[in-house]
Amino acid sequence: MSNSVKRREQLEKYINLFKEIGEKRDLENERKRIIMIPAIISIILVVCQTTNTLYLANYAYNVRQLYTEFDLYFNNVLNNNITWPKENNNSLSKTIERLSEIDMYQETLWELFVSEFLEIVFPIVCLITFAYEITLNKIGKVISFKILVIYILCPILTLILSLAQACMLAVTLTKQIFPIRYVINKVSNTLLSLYPQGRSSLENFFKCEFYDTIDELPPCSGLFHDQVMPMSGINFMLALHIIPFLCGIYMIIYHLKSDNVEHLFLHIETIYPQKDSNIINNNEIPNYLNKALGSIQTKYG
To answer: Residue 274 CA to chain centroid, in angstroms?
Structure first.
């Protein structure tokens, strides 16, 4: 009778130990998913934000050069003491006001560029932390809880900032497309009508022509028109802001709905009584289980 009780207690001990090992592996797998999801989102954010940053930088630079060339052209007109028209639509004060609008537009583009660039910082911090976690994982260690919290918050904050930036893009740039194109066209026509000899600087820089003299060069009016970010470009940037958010939502929902279960099986051939001469040590089976199952660690690649 006593042998039966001892065998039962011994079996319960091994089963409980097996459960502990299974729970430990479940926690390791859960931690793996917690680590992987922010890293994947951060990679998507870095790709999308870098694309947006370069795209904005291109337009900001082009508008900046256009404003600089217009300003030089305007100063050349003033230096030649040319009489400005009396009508208000093409007057000196109106032209100065239009040049200021172009300057404000290019400053807006540069401000948005800086915002896009700064949004890359958090995902990069997240990826650096992920690389640090991988390094520690290879030697059997993990990052601290505080670092893990920062690691998880980095992509979350970036997604929030990305949505806010998308709203700012839609509000700021969409309304300026046609007004700024009109302003550029009026400034160009006014300066060209007052001092046509000064157009060479604009034509040489942008590789265009105001008058149809060389078939290979595009008209300057159309080229200046293209320097303003079109609606398709704004929609492209908005899509790149929304894609990481949608991917993040999808991965979180997929993880919550995932029912993948790792099955572990315990097979005990014989339970030896404590007084048996061939009895194995009490710690032999627990040590074997820890060695066999504990060595199967969660790896990231």
So the answer is: 63
Residue 142 and residue 28 in contact, taking contact as beta carbons nearer than 8 Å:
no
For residue range 18-30, what is the model confidence (pLDDT) as tens digits? 667 666 666 666 7
Q: Is 84 exposed, middle or buried (0-12, 13-18, 19+ CB in 10 A)?
A: middle
pTM: 0.75
Chain centroid offset of residue 240 CA: 8
Which neighbouring-strand residues pair with 219?
209
How many angstroms separate the CA atoms of 301 and 295, rounded? 16
Cα three-residue angle 172-176-177, rounded to 5 degrees? 120
| Least confident among 4-8, 33-37, 118-122 | 4-8
- Asked whether the predicted pLDDT for residue 265 surpasses 90, the reply is no
Pair of tokens at residue 269: 């051939």
> Which one, of 65, 34, 55, 73, lies nearest residue 251 by Cα?
34
Residue 68 to residue 152: CA distance in whole angstroms: 44
Residues 6+ apart with CB under 8 A from 208: 202, 217, 218, 219, 220, 223
Question: Which of helix, strand or coil describes residue 141?
Answer: coil
Paired tokens of 87: 């009508």
What's the number of CA atoms in the CB half-sphere (13 Å) around residue 6? Answer: 11
Q: How many residues does the structure list for the chain?
A: 301
Which tens digit of pLDDT belongs to each residue from 238-253? 999 999 999 999 988 8
The pair of three-digit structure tokens given for residue 285, joined into one six-digit string:
């089976």
- DSSP category for residue 230: P
Run of H or E including 61:
helix 2-79
The candidate with the shortest Cα–Cα distance to 219, out of 183, 180, 194, 192, is 192
Q: Are 220 and 208 in contact (CB under 8 A)?
A: yes
Containing H/E element for 291?
Answer: helix 284-294
CA 159 vs. chain centroid, Å, equals 8
Paired strand residues for 209: 219
